[in-house]
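hey can u check if this looks right to u? its 408 residues, i copy pasted from the old doc so theres a chance i mangled smth
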Amino acid sequence: MTDLLGEVLEQFTGGPVDFLGPPSQGGFTHSNIGAPAVVSWDESRGAIARLFREGYSHFHRFLVLPSRDAIRWLLPLSDVGKQLPGFQIYTPYFPLARVAKALTVSILARWRGWPYHRVLVVSKAALPLEVLVSEVTGEHQPVFALSVGTPNRVRKLSMLVMRPNGEVLGHIKLPLTEAATNRVRHEAATLERLWNFAALRLHIPKVLHAGNWGDAYILFQSCGPSQPGPVEFGPLHQRFLETLRALQPVERPGQVLVEEVAAHWRKAQPSLGSRWQELGAVALERANRALAGVAVRCGVMHGDFTPWNSRTGNGRLFLFDWESAEWQAPGGWDIFHFQTQVASSLKRRVQCGLPADQSSSERAIFLLYLLNSACQIVEEAPRGDVGLDCRRRLVIDELSRERDSCLS
């Protein structure tokens, strides 16, 4: 069992687990068969009968995808090995990823094989997660689909919680790092605060439970509509952001915003590399000059406003993943983020920069967004990603446009 899979299963079971190999490998021993929860690759009738005799009555069968050594999802299986609903935990946006998911679902529906990618989790009593879900929802036989986040400093284990018939009960987040714990705490606090605004309740998850969970923190929240959010910015996005910005609007001195981004920049600069250093210094100087004496309208910001963090249903936009939310961010940063992420992550041709007729203060706010989001990327993933290159090109374009304007 890989270290990551072991860590994921320990989070799922709520404590250390013992691994049971096939009987031929000495899987059933007195030292591990008495553990509160065990993990077994052996699903034979004899193995399951032995587990029952030893007092194990709670079973969770999973299909491990794509493999034990490259774990991304653990999808639930029924008692007879049939796949249960659960792959809706993953909504791909890349065309190739959509094809891959459709092909995988089709294969799983027709083939009951894949024996080397299954895992059986058994316990003598209900797992802590089962107890929590039962207390919150009344469902005594919850089914879980697990998704392991990308390897970065804020990696989390996400779980789709369902009834045995596939009805979705909610979504659970369990951090896998200390930084992720802070992010999940922040999201829970943000959602609870936002829930006080009636205008937002149809657009955001409801916190079903949040609190300490061992050495970490757990967030159990409701799920929204199932339809994926659109990849093109449109009226639904505009109406939602107008509602969000109207909650607690405030005007802040532009130079204070520059100072905040500059502090963020100085902290992240060593990880950004030499190509960014001069660009950042020039961009901050331009922004400081353009925003001198300017009051900037600010308000609530989602912080990761993207198609993959949204759903649609009944003519409304639903937003989840509020981990990066801020309460006094410049208006427009969510729009900048949406367009930039669509361009960099989905390789789509969209208008990322600002139209030529925008004011110097608007351009300064855009520059501050680019620097701030570049800092966040390297803080989450020190090696960076394609989003950094996209932002660097946009900074260069903005600085070049202002230079050309001054020369004309």
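Residues 23-31 have pLDDT under 50 and may be disordered.
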